[in-house]
Amino acid sequence: MVVPVQYYLALSVALFALGVIGVLIRRNALVIYMSIEMMLNAVNLAFIGFADYFKAVDGQMFVFFVLTVAAAEVAVGLALIVAIFRNRGDVYVDNLNILKW
Amino acid sequence: MQTLFFILGAVALISGGLVVFQKHPLRSALWLIVNFFAVAGIYLLAHAEFIAAIQVIVYAGAIMVLFLFVIMLMNIRQPEEDPKIPFIGRKLAGIILAGFTGLILIYGVTKATLTTAKEMAPGLGNTESIARSLFTDYLLPFEVTSVLLLVAIVGAVVLAKSKLK
């Protein structure tokens, strides 16, 4: 019994919305980052669902590249968070208001 | 197969919710690992064995180790402290906005018309077919990816080096 593509999309939308909630309500930059990872994962899930539906390998290739970019992004982003922590002593995003005018 | 999908989806959603609503970042990170494993299981159901393995190795392995290392570096023991501006209103606004995002996504998804599926190619999704596609159709993006990773390594080293000048 095959899982219909709509189920994948529904789960993907739900996970993406959860990630959006995390980005919007959390103050800790690390948790916001984790939520962003979750959103990337949700999009990957949609890709995989479509790849399964269309019986094409291209969706899986895109997931492969998204994974690579996510790994690079996490390395740079976490380095940035560490630098911010060194300079300011915390990573709460509502304290980072230098750009606010 | 469908019951397995529902179980894994429920695990993914619950652990995802716990990632968002846990007070302590360390617990969020640990629940995120559960989430990644559940999603990897769903990839297995969708005939994406290679991607599932990569998901476990890269996401649940490497990336989460990186997260945990940073949490350890920052020595965050206490949960998130209370902000100066009231929290509950902002939380509510965030959840409502996220709900709108979800509604827009649902609208887009239901609007889409799916063309019919093709015949299953033999051995789809296994490492061999992915490798064939990777080194023929997607050769250029694959090579560019290595440059991207190099840039990320250099950037991370420069940023994390003692002090920003």
Brief rundown of the structure:
The complex is a heterodimer of chains A (101) and B (165). Chain A has one domain (5-95): Helix Hairpins (Orthogonal Bundle), CATH 1.10.287.3510.
Describe this structure in words.
- The complex is a heterodimer of chains A (101) and B (165).
- Chain A has three helices and no strands.
- Chain A has one domain: Helix Hairpins (Orthogonal Bundle).
- Chain A has helices spanning 5-25, 29-54, 58-88.
- Chain A is elongated.
- Helix content of chain A is 77%, strand content 0%.
- Chain B is an all-alpha fold and 165 residues long.
- Chain B has two domains: 1-79, NADH-ubiquinone/plastoquinone oxidoreductase chain 6, subunit NuoJ (Four Helix Bundle (Hemerythrin (Met), subunit A), Up-down Bundle); 126-165.
- Chain B has six helices and no strands.
- Chain B has helices spanning 2-21, 25-45, 49-74, 87-111, 127-134, 139-160.
- The longest helix of chain B has 26 residues, at 49-74.
- Chain B starts with a helix and ends in a 5-residue tail after the last helix.
- Chains A and B meet through α1, α2 and α3 of A and α1, α2, α3, α4 and α5 of B.
